[in-house]
Amino acid sequence: MEYAKLPLGRAQIHWEVLEFVPSRICTYASNSFMARGRVSFLLDEVDGGTRIKALVSGQLKGPFRVLEPLMAAIGRADRENSLRLIKERMESEVVGPSGQGGRRMEVK
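Structure (tokenized):
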């Protein structure tokens, strides 16, 4: 469950994990009173690091559709923040062969 900050207050959103493979993929979805959405993070090992690809889709319902331009901007900012947090977490926990932490990540 997540509490989303909206222009008119907070909304409670329930997310369901649809697919999870550690270090490979995480997909979750929501179908709330105001929107339906799906988010996937795909991780691929690349030379010297990890590439993360975020796939996001969704649609506002009913009268909430008038908020689409604003919600699109909020969604982009949230996705960028999520990718930054994933990158920070992975870089702080991975130890290289010489005992040094971190892996280079390419975020798309």
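The chain has a mean pLDDT of 78. Residues 68-93 form the longest helix (26 residues).
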